[in-house]
């Protein structure tokens, strides 16, 4: 009986995750299609990308956030 409950919980969580991923994919593709007319300067895009990578690296290595 306990295994049956665990299997049902696993299936419910799987459905929720698939729904969340599908919703995220739908919103990302919709925003990507609307962003085609973006006129941001290339240098600003590159600087923002480098800062984002540094931020992610800092969080992962412990420079930023966490203890």
Outline the secondary-structure elements.
Elements: H1 2-34, H2 42-61
Quick overview:
The protein has 67 residues and is an all-alpha fold. Helix content is 79%, strand content 0%.
As for the number of domains, it is: 1
Q: What is the 3D shape?
A: flat
Binned, the helix content reads: over 70%
Q: In total, how many beta strands?
A: 0
- The helix/strand order is HH
Keywords: Membrane, Transmembrane, Transmembrane helix
Transmembrane segments: 47-66
Keywords:
79% helix; membrane; transmembrane helix; 0% strand; 67 residues; flat; mainly alpha; 2 helices
Note down, in words, how this protein is organized:
By secondary structure, this protein is mostly helical. It has one domain. Helices cover 79% and strands 0% of the residues. The protein has two helices and no strands. It has helices spanning 2-34, 42-61.
């Amino acid at each position: 009986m306990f295994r049956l409950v665990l299997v049902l919980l696993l299936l419910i969580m799987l459905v929720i995750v698939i729904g969340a991923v599908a919703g995220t994919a739908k919103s990302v593709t919709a925003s990507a299609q609307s962003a085609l007319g973006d006129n941001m300067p290339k240098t600003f895009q590159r600087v923002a990308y480098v800062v984002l990578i540094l931020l992610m690296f800092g969080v992962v290595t412990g420079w930023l956030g966490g203890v």
